[in-house]
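Annotated sample (chain length 249).
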Amino acid sequence: MNRDRILSLLEEVQSGMLAADAALEHFARFPFVDTENARIDTHRSLRQGNPEVVFGPGKSVAQIVEVVRAIAEGGESVLVTRVEADVAAGVRAAIPEIEYEEVGRLLWLGPAEVPVVGKGTIVIVTAGTSDLPVAAEAFGVAQRFGNDVELLQDVGVAGIHRLLASMEKLRDARVLIVVAGMEGALPSVVGGLVDKPVIAVPTSVGYGASFSGLAALLGMLTSCASNVTCVNIDNGFGAANVATLINRL
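Output written by the structure step:
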């Protein structure tokens, strides 16, 4: 349940199109819905601006189907993250209309095109192609949250001229999400080139001393570019969520 849906219900009651007791049934779902395996937060969009998103890992096909159906029955779109292809196939067998984006590992039940409500463009920048799964998660989430999103990929510091060739796109962005593994230097470079918020996303890509993303995380947390902030390792969803909130201000 979000602000637009609540306002619509109240307007329908005011105009006489909807009986008050029927509207009450909708409001009775506040602030959560219990299913056999979950307690679904139906009030999150109203409190925080973005709806609850289902985290896929650790959930069976049956559990994901149960949660998706419960949210959809409340009139909401549903986004499920980190869903591997075999699990997605099982969910789609039960809910054929749900969409699956394999690179970003996202399931989506909702409109094919979400209205853009963000005030500008979120540009997602990747250091290398190996970072693309995390970037694709951020891209898909940001789109489904109502943003105009662009992807600039494979422009890491090992070939900095590739990044500099896209300066116009970087400077036109309202928010940037920069995804990098190895030593995680790219967000600092981008931060030094623009006057916009830069959300750094360390990835678990890299050789042994990168410690599965820890080296990139520490590098991003100690960035000397003062417009850079950082989310957790591989957290494309978290970066997209924060970028969305910034883009609506």
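Annotation: The first strand starts at residue 32 and ends at 34.
Annotation: The mean pLDDT is 92.
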